[in-house]
Amino acid sequence: MKILIIINDPPYGTEKLYNAMRLTHQLVKDHPEIELRVFLMADAATAALTNQVTPNGYYNVERMLKLALSKGVKIKICGSCAEARGINKLPLIEGTELSNMSELAHWVVDSDKVLTF
Question: Which fold has domain 2-116?
Answer without folding.
Answer: Hypothetical Protein Ychn; Chain: A, (3.40.1260)
